[in-house]
Amino acid sequence: MEDNRRNFIKKGISVAAALSLGGLQGSAHETSIEDVVQLNSFAKDAGMEMSNAYFSGIEANKQLIALAKQMDALGAVAGVNPGLAGLTNVNPWEYKAIIGVKEAWKKQGLKFNVVEGPPSLGEKTKLGLAGKDEEIENFIAFMKNLKKAGIDVICYNWMPVISWARTSMDRPGRGGALMTAFDYEDIKNKPLTKYGEVSPETMWKNLEYFLKAVVPEAEKIEMKLALHPDDPQVNSIQGISRIMNTVENFDRMLNLVPSPYSGVTMCQGNFSLMGADIPALVRRWGKAGKIHFVHFRNVQDLSGVLPSTKFTETFHDEGQIDMYEAMKAYYDIGFKGPIRPDHVPTMAGEENTFPGYMTLGNLFAIGYIRGLAEAASKRAKA
């Protein structure tokens, strides 16, 4: 009954809009009631799953969770921490842990839709150390249990030991907002890690070993594996090579074990800092079915070289990426998966306790992304 009432109201508003446009009087460009109804019936968020990252758990994100529900941005991207469900002595790849965490998010009114930072994928696998086969077996078990729980996207990376890295967490940005930033000059002389020099060839060999073991199993259960680019996308940090730092290397990865279920996390910032034309890349990989998850963010290169060795995060509306053209590309390829803002600034009134993931920046980003999605949808139907 309520749905019928909403539809009646929507049609009534659309009829009024058509009348105000002179749609019943005829003109060289006549607008019919049906045209206006269709224009107003676009899918919310262009059919994508608007989401937020909650890496610091529930208690630390109470305000963002409340705002997300008010904004109707209900996807929850997180890891699997059994403690979130009050569980102890349970491995995070076990079904009990996964379903417990999913229910914990459900109680908050959110849908746990992407695992970012999967358990049992660490140094042993990425560096090819003893124990890698056990890690991979646990990862396969994790995929199966995750799918059983109704979650089908895993965002993973190939950055052992040193993962997401920045040299500044409080670079002053627009209006005094605090941005994260990176300058390779600040870390180039840091000592090697305990693993010494790790060559690109070793990293490629280990990645191929992992993919050959995991992708066929992912395909059987239709689990989407979304590899995140190296961040920062430099060639090495403290002796450990970073190989997922060019578009060409991603193409190489996708061809190692070709499958519809082996794809990418389209982290716009990193691919742009590699020199990619983001809308064009979205269309190319999107048409091939390789985009499983989107980090919708903006950046500014400060180095003048590619891949960038010095850059800063920005507000979504001020960096080097044409965000509207990017959104049009996602709409045009029919992307319907999860999308979230990433690495937002810390804004006035906030303490910079979790740089890149503070509440007000996410609030701004969700509104901006939603506006772009609506604009792209209506442009396509006009």
UniProtKB/TrEMBL annotation:
Origin species: Olivibacter domesticus
Pathway: Carbohydrate metabolism; pentose and glucuronate interconversion
The protein's role, per its UniProt record: Catalyzes the dehydration of D-mannonate.
Record's protein name: mannonate dehydratase
Names of the cofactor(s): Fe(2+); Mn(2+)
Reaction(s) the record says it catalyses: D-mannonate = 2-dehydro-3-deoxy-D-gluconate + H2O
EC number(s) reported in the record: 4.2.1.8
Family of this protein: Belongs to the mannonate dehydratase family.
Keyword Manganese (UniProt): yes
UniProt GO MF annotations: ferrous iron binding; manganese ion binding; mannonate dehydratase activity
Top enzyme category: lyase
Keywords for the protein's UniProt record, in alphabetical order: Iron, Lyase, Manganese
One Gene Ontology term from the biological process aspect of the record: D-glucuronate catabolic process
A Pfam family reported for this protein in Swiss-Prot or TrEMBL: UxuA
Electron transport keyword on record: no
InterPro entries: Man_deHydtase (IPR004628), TAT_signal (IPR006311), Xyl_isomerase-like_sf (IPR036237)
